[in-house]
Design goal:
The protein is mainly alpha-helical and 178 residues long. Helix content is 70%, strand content 0%.
């Protein structure tokens, strides 16, 4: 099942690169999957799929159907798809063109503070990767980014406490390095 899902995800993200690098986007997805998978049941699958709805033309329904086709149970497919939906941005410019960027980010942060524990845990893993990336490739924007993410993570209290602590510590260490 996992091998089929991984192959499908690689195909869907084909030719996508980690921004500012020559590395395939699947590197980011694998990092998130492996970190979350060590903590949360189905965290590997949720991590692999967490950007699928935002960065490809795959729908939630198609993801669910594919998971069933790969042999995941109905319960597993519903859980994975549900968490992926929770991790998909809602307050986008396209969906809310009359709301300014700052307000959309605020609304998105409020929304993320209310998502499930499993989805928050995957988000923690996603942010760990993203912080390392920002420190390497957008250091000039790192301070504001880190402060925003610190505030976000403080409001996200449902996920795995150890991974959350690791993330908050990473943010603190990164701020001190600036």
């Amino acid at each position: 099942m996992r091998e089929q899902l991984l192959h499908w995800i690689k195909c869907k993200h084909q030719r996508q690169m980690v921004r500012g690098t020559d590395r395939p986007y699947e590197e980011h997805l694998m990092f998130v999957a492996e970190r979350a998978g060590a903590i949360v049941p189905l965290g590997y699958e949720i991590g692999l799929c967490h950007d699928l709805l935002e960065k490809t033309n795959v729908s939630s329904e198609e993801l669910h159907t594919q998971l069933l086709a790969f042999g995941y149970t109905r319960f597993q497919a519903v859980h994975i798809t549900g968490c992926v939906n929770e991790l998909t941005d809602v307050f986008t410019k396209q969906a809310f063109p009359n709301i300014g960027k700052k307000e959309r980010k605020k609304l998105e942060s409020q929304r993320l503070s209310a998502i499930s524990a499993d989805a928050q845990t995957v988000k923690y893993a996603d942010l760990i990767y993203n912080i390392h990336w920002v420190m390497l490739y957008q250091r000039h924007k790192a301070c504001a980014y880190l402060r925003r993410k610190q505030k976000l993570v403080i409001s996200m209290e449902k996920g795995d406490p150890e991974l959350r602590h690791e993330l908050l510590s990473l943010i603190e260490r990164s701020l001190k390095r600036l």
